[in-house]
Specification:
five-stranded mixed barrel; 16 helices; eight-stranded mixed β-sheet; single chain; about 15% strand; alpha/beta; about 500 residues
């Protein structure tokens, strides 16, 4: 089977399998595992949880499971600087409102921005004595301020959503507005005041202070979940919700996508230096398969359409290299599709949705493109640097050289090519031999040397099919050739069988 066809079949297989696994995970029964019946479920919301789509999937699963199993209560333990505003609004307006059991927020020790909004969605809020809550204004993904009509539109939506939730839960909507909007002044007796242009941020003591006959925000101060349950008169087993293996994997992929990109490039380079489909090609495809699979599970945009773009990009590059070498256009389009599919696959849906609401602005472009571009750029830089180091040093390592030589060179008799006793069994020394290019060399292509066909690389320029070539260099990665007629290089001599046996070189 031809190598390009091998690549595509394995690629389709890996990515199709990834899609099936992703779909299976997407429809996993959220009620599987140990029962929550009669227990208090603690869901920890950490510093990075509200900026990861996988976290929101995890929260949703725990809410569904707690409802289904009839848990005694659910506690969201918050220590977060915030995250995605619209995903958090969906969490408090839709998901938390489905709860048929008591819900509590325990601020330990920070609930800022989206963290504060999450707390508003719970029935009661408790705070650690050394904790803060507030500063919940909506900003762009890079921390910039939203301007003009778009700001008014978003704030109007946020105001309506949070007001509805806080009124339903018995919290003061004015407190929520003072934390979210800067266009008005707010006064809360002797507890706190907010000037125009500022946001409310409460300490634990302020939040628990009495205002108009009840606590301003927090039902009380506690130092642990056990103290919270004691204050509520709840006696039940406490269990901490933990992500599944799939969810942990999604976290890793979302955060370390650049490692998979770099690995895919490096293994693709290793495969390109050896004829036939081997370990390098398989590992490269595995890296990219995991990339799409993991980003899909993490809730990013990665889907079958992105896999299709990636595959079409590879097809176009194969066409450029093997069918119409030198035509340029298929190769350029292929590279563009590959890069585009990788960037968009890492995109967060809420950031890309901003294009439909905010329009194409500097902020919306930065929100949607900056994180994926940083991941892609880091992966490309690491990949290129390691490839350059491999080109320089890796062929000098005896183990790797012998491993690659076995897969790079033909075995058996090949015309008058001489066996090299220092290479793996059947290895042929080609340096100095003449061959015929059977494809265009631009600069990589195929040539017949002796009676065998090899993948060769032209040292400089391009060469047409049918031209004679001469082998000038050979190592574990590639066979370098020049057009015949160029000055032949000095042929290096390998190690001899013994220092005293002159002329018995292992290279002919």
């Amino acid at each position: 089977m031809q190598r390009p066809l091998c690549y595509l079949l394995v690629l389709f297989g890996l990515l199709f399998g990834s899609g099936i696994l992703s779909a299976a995970d997407r429809f996993l029964d959220p009620q599987e595992g140990d029962s929550y019946a009669g227990k208090v479920v603690v869901v920890k919301v950490g510093k990075d949880d509200l900026v990861n789509q996988a976290s929101f999937r995890f929260f949703r699963r725990q809410i569904e499971k707690a409802n289904k199993d009839k848990a005694r209560a659910i506690v969201f333990e918050l220590d977060t600087p915030g995250g995605y505003a619209f995903d958090t609004i969906k969490l408090i307006v839709k998901d938390l409102q489905t709860l048929e059991i008591p819900s509590y927020a325990f601020v330990n020790s920070e609930a800022t921005s989206a963290g504060a909004i999450t707390a508003f969605g719970c029935d009661k809020i408790y705070m650690h004595p050394v904790s803060t809550i507030g500063s919940a204004a909506v900003v762009t993904g890079v921390g910039g301020e939203i301007e003009g009509t778009m700001k008014a539109k978003i704030e109007s939506f946020m105001n309506a959503a949070v007001t509805a939730v806080t009124e339903e839960k018995g919290h003061d909507p004015e407190v929520a507005r003072a934390m979210m909007f800067v266009d008005e002044e707010y006064e809360f007796g002797d507890i706190a005041s907010v000037k125009k242009g500022a946001l409310l941020n409460l300490t634990a003591k302020q939040a628990a202070s009495e205002y108009r006959g009840k606590p301003l925000l927090a039902a009380g101060l506690v130092r642990s979940v056990d103290e919270l349950l004691k204050a509520e008169g709840i006696e039940a087993e406490v269990v901490e919700a933990a992500p599944t293996g799939f969810e942990k994997f999604a976290y890793w992929v979302a955060e370390w996508s650049f490692v998979l990109i770099a690995g895919g490039l490096i293994f693709a380079y290793i495969e390109s230096q050896a004829p036939g489909f081997g370990v390098g090609g398989a590992l490269s495809l595995i890296c990219f398969g995991i990339f799409f699979f993991g980003n899909n599970m993490a809730g990013n945009l990665a889907g079958y359409e992105h896999v299709a773009l990636f595959v079409v990009g590879i097809l176009l590059i194969v066409v450029e290299l093997f069918l119409v070498p030198g035509f340029i256009i298929p190769g350029v389009l292929g590279v563009m599709l590959l890069i585009g599919s990788l960037i968009s696959a890492m995109g967060a849906p809420e950031a890309w949705d901003a294009f439909s609401t905010e329009g194409v602005t500097t902020d919306s472009i930065m929100d949607a493109l900056l994180p994926p571009l940083m991941n892609l750029s880091l992966g490309l830089v690491i990949g290129v640097i390691l490839i350059l180091l491999m080109m320089r040093y890796l062929t000098d390592l005896p183990f790797f050289r012998s491993f690659k030589m076995e897969t790079s060179l033909a075995s058996g008799t090949a015309g008058n090519l001489q066996d090299d006793p220092t290479t793996p069994a059947g290895g042929k020394i080609l340096i100095g031999h003449i061959g015929i290019a059977v494809t265009d060399l631009r600069p990589v292509g195929k040539a017949v040397i002796g009676e065998e066909k090899y993948q060769v690389t032209l040292r400089t320029g391009f060469l047409s099919k049918g031209e004679e070539i001469v082998v000038v260099s050979q190592d574990g990665f590639r066979i370098l050739v020049d057009p015949r007629g160029e000055p032949e290089p000095e042929i290096p001599r390998g190690p001899t069988k013994s220092e005293g046996e002159a002329g018995e070189s292992s290279i002919s």
